[in-house]
Structures are given as C-alpha cells and as structure tokens.
Amino acid sequence: MSRASPNSAKLTSRWRIGCNMPNYRLSYFKIRGRAETARYIFAYSGIKYEENTIDIADWPNLKNSLIFKQIPVLNVDNIIINQSSAIARYLARETGLAGKSNLEQARVDAIVDTINDFMNMFPWTEKNQVVKQKIMEDVFANNIPLLLDGLSKLLGDQMWFVGDSVTWADFHWAVCSITLTNLNVDTLHNHPTLLALKERVEALPKIAAWIEQRPKTPL
Ligand SMILES: N[C@@H](CCC(=O)N[C@@H](CS)C(=O)NCC(=O)O)C(=O)O
C-alpha cells in the first residue's frame, strides 16, 4: 500500500510531521459488521491501511492463530489489537476523533458502549430462524425505543453527539443505524434528528466516497 500522508487537520503531531506512520492491516470478514467504524475513521482521516478480507473457508486457520479466536483484529506494525471498540478508539485517538478533552472522550465512549449494548441484544448467531425472528422483533419492540429516545435526548439540537465537531461516536451511530434500518425499515421514523445525523455523517465527502466504493453487503 502507498503511505500517503493523512490529510485531516486534526491529526496528532506524529501524523502532522509525517514520520513513523505505522503499517495498518485490518482483518475481518467481507461485511460492515464490527469493522466498519474503524473503516470510517481510516476513510475520513485518509490514513492508508491494508484490508485483509477473510474468506469463510480460511477462517478456521486464522482463528487458530488468534489469541481470542475472534475478528476484527488490527495489526499495527506487528502488534495485534483485538476488540472492535478498542481498535476504533485507538484510531480515533490517533486522528483527533475521540473527543477534545477527557470528559468529551468519556461521553463519546459512553455513547459507543450504549449503542453496542443494544446491538449485542440481537441474536446474530442464532441458527433457528423462527427463534431468531422472534427475538429480533422483541428487541425492536422492547429495547430499541429506549436506545433511540436516549440518543435523541443526548443529541438534542446539536450537529454532533459530543462537542462541536464529528467524533467516532457519530460514525458508530451512522454505521449501526444502517444495520438497524436494514432489519426494520421503520426504525428511525420517529427519530428524525438521528436520521439527520446518520445522513450528515454519510455526506462527509470522504465517508461518501468510501460508501460508494465499499462492498455492498447485507450486514
Ligand atoms: N467483542 C468483540 C466481538 C468479536 C466477534 O464477535 N467477532 C465475530 C465476528 S463479528 C467472530 O469472530 N465470529 C467468528 C467466530 O467466533 O468464530 C468485538 O467487538 O470485536
């Protein structure tokens, strides 16, 4: 991969002086899933990385080699980082998207963790389709309204969830809300400000370019 300088004004000093840029390799399946927020950060900041798409046939071999047997993992100059939130948070800190103070960062983290709590309620790996459908409907009826009402309150009439500029919490919401609306087209009907935030993120030119070029997958 070429090692072009990242072009966001918010990058940390290491990036601004353009030296010692790590080699990044992101390993995940060919889905948005738990890697997409990190991909948005890469796209927005212009940092080059290698996308290591894991074919399902190759997964058992790679799985054996991983300490915690799960992906995504991010290889940073041969150091392996697991956990999608840790990966995205690290990239966000590196690129000025984590929040501008410790307090802002705590608010950003709380939003991401809350979204994840709710996304993890869905029975993603349930094999029985009847059971799966039943639980999905249950989560949409009984849990997702709490998430959406809460996020709407936090957003209020602001442009972004935290502070006066975009953070990875906004990216994470934009990513997860695609999955929510794919599962249930009515999800955002009563939450226009959350829909507008998703669209604001997707209209950022570098995010729009990434969305245009990424593989079209259901998840
Ligand atoms: N908490 C972890 C969960 C990772 C996870 O569940 N990964 C799934 C794919 S989304 C996986 O590796 N599944 C394959 C398997 O467990 O064999 C994270 O957020 O990274």
Question: Can you characterise this structure?
Answer:
This protein is of the alpha+beta class and 219 residues long. The chain has two domains: 92 residues, Glutaredoxin; 102 residues, Glutathione S-transferase Yfyf (Class Pi), Chain A, domain 2, CATH 1.20.1050. It is built from ten helices and four strands, in the order H-E-H-E-H-E-E-H-H-H-H-H-H-H. It has a four-stranded mixed β-sheet, covered by helices on one side. Strand 3 and strand 4 form a beta hairpin. Helix 2 packs parallel to helix 4. The longest helix is centred in the middle third of the chain and has 18 residues. The chain is globular and about 45 Å long. The N terminus is likely disordered. The structure holds glutathione. Glutathione binds next to helix 4. It catalyses: RX + glutathione = an S-substituted glutathione + a halide anion + H(+). This is glutathione transferase. Keywords: Transferase.
